[in-house]
Design brief:
By secondary structure, this protein is α/β, with parallel strands linked by helices. It has a domain of 219 residues: Rossmann fold (3-Layer(aba) Sandwich). Helix content is 45%, strand content 16%. It contains 19 helices and 15 strands. β3 and β4 form a beta hairpin. α16 packs across α18. Pyridoxal-5'-phosphate binds next to α11. The site of pyridoxal-5'-phosphate (PLP) has 16 residues, from α11.
């Protein structure tokens, strides 16, 4: 399996290159040259009585990685990755009614769906680096969820050190404690006196300083990495196979950077029958506007109850555009140039009609989010987090349109966003047992000014072997 860039100018790459690089040299995102094909009946036959999440994951992921990792090795890595999950079937399915199912993606160590990808990506990084005796320094910026999931995925690993920048005093307490209470010799938390954008700019500037980034062998685990999307493909097959024998379903996904729902579209390209993908947005509705009228126009980001979906640019959307443009990298490049320079990108006519045959979208306000949390709790005795509620609200709106069931993805555990859940429903969600003492754990982090030199000096001083 080889990989191409969505901008069409980089040479084809191997899985190992795609994993360790993240972004392609021409600024594009990697995708496989062809989509491996599966079907539900054959998968059931191959898996036989061992139809576990891990066994299914080995089948689905293997074609993507087989040039770098043999099948037994891959299966070991997958089992190790999901050992840390508190649900035996990794992604349990919950039936709300005959038309609406929930796929619970939040049973990993940090209570958000990002663990499903990052726990395995951590194993894949370590596996590839150890084969070459290489060491890397991961540097990332977070507004909350990604940082803790990345730290849990990389902690205690020999081949890497991880530095995560968060905006001082601007993350939720649960999010901060999930990062700063990890005491491992390769984990470093930096609280920047600034905003999330400042943190992101610092990381970008450090990457751009080739002397510095080469000296520390700097790497990233952000959501444009193909390996994360690849890992997420599995639960679309899993969820569908749990609730139907061979039928068609809809998927509804609370979306931000578009990585999660694009993994669903990848599963569909690999043969999974899906009627529609429903993109659920909060007030930051750049995606909803695109799927309605073909126009993507950048606006300011407003804070909401679902902060992990507060985005202006959805990085993984580029991958969809590449498919829609029939893999014409030049056209993708021109579209993103227009987005950069004029602040908008558009498609129309047959292209838009083609997109709308497979995609629907919905925008959910803060008050609708809270109302939905309350309604689900009253109707079903089921407590959901605000991101999940945005998805369920969008799914309910779509339910009258389709005969097929809708699987709505639950992307975070309610106790990760306790304030919004309590405000909506009066219920104060409790942390699962592995985190029950989170509020008592000792924290450690370094507070640094919003200054590139200070951050670089800190990183150089903390690294071993310098
Ligand atoms: C990251 C995140 C999202 C958005 O997912 P994308 O893949 O960026 O579209 C939604 N909900 C939660 C809880 C998240 O952490």
């Amino acid at each position: 399996m080889r990989y191409v860039s969505t901008r069409g100018k980089s040479p084809e790459a191997s899985f190992k290159e795609v994993l360790l690089r993240g972004l392609a040299p021409d600024g594009g995102l990697y995708l496989p040259t062809t989509w491996p094909q599966f079907n539900v009946n054959e998968l059931r036959k191959v898996l036989g009585s061992d139809f576990s999440y891990q066994a299914l994951a080995s089948e689905i992921i293997y074609p993507f990685t087989k040039d770098s990792i043999d099948k037994d090795e891959l299966s070991d890595l997958i089992h190790r990755a999901y050992d840390s999950f508190s649900a035996e079937d990794i992604v349990p399915m919950k039936c709300l009614n005959s038309k609406l199912w929930i796929a619970e993606l939040f049973h990993g160590p940090t209570l958000a769906f990002k663990d499903i990808a990052l726990q395995l990506v951590g194993e894949l990084f370590e596996n590839q680096l150890q084969k070459e005796s290489e060491k890397i320094t991961i540097v990332g910026a977070t507004s909350g969820d990604t940082g803790s999931a990345a730290i849990e995925a990389c902690r205690d690993r020999e081949s890497m050190e991880i530095f995560i920048l968060h905006p001082h005093g601007r993350t939720s307490e649960v999010q901060r404690r999930q990062m700063t209470s990890v005491h491992s010799k390769n984990v470093f938390n930096i609280a920047i006196e600034g905003t999330f954008d400042d943190c992101q700019d610092l990381v970008k500037d450090m990457f751009a300083d080739v002397d510095f980034s080469t000296r520390i062998n700097m790497s990233a685990v952000n959501s444009i990495n193909w390996a994360r999307v690849m890992t997420q493909i599995v639960y679309y097959w899993w969820a569908s196979m749990q609730i139907t024998d061979n039928g068609i379903v809809n998927f509804c996904v609370p979306s931000g950077n578009f990585g999660n729902i694009f993994a669903g579209f990848s599963a569909h390209n690999m043969g999974l029958p899906v009627e529609k993908f429903i993109v659920a947005s909060n007030r930051n509705d750049v995606l909803d506007r695109f799927f309605r009228n073909g126009e993507m126009e950048l606006r300011d980001v407003a804070p909401t109850y679902s902060p992990s979906m507060d985005i202006q640019v959805s990085s993984n959307f580029e991958r969809l555009l590449f498919e829609v443009f029939e893999r014409d990298g030049l056209r993708v490049e021109q579209a993103f140039k227009a987005l950069r320079s004029e602040g908008s990108l558009s498609v129309s006519g047959d292209t838009l009609a083609g997109i709308q045959r497979k995609w629907a979208s919905s925008k959910v306000s803060d008050s609708e989010t809270l109302a939905r949390i309350k309604k689900i709790s009253e109707e079903y005795g089921y407590v959901v987090d605000p991101h999940t509620a945005v998805g369920i609200e969008a799914a309910e709106r779509h339910a009258g349109v389709s005969q097929a069931p809708i699987i709505s993805l639950a992307t975070a555990h309610p106790s990760k966003f306790p304030d919004a859940v309590e405000e909506a429903s009066g219920i104060s969600p409790t942390l699962p047992s592995h985190l029950s003492d989170l509020y008592e754990r000792e924290e450690s982090y370094e507070i640094l000014p919003n200054d590139e030199g200070a951050v670089k000096n800190y990183i150089l001083a903390q690294r071993k072997g310098e």
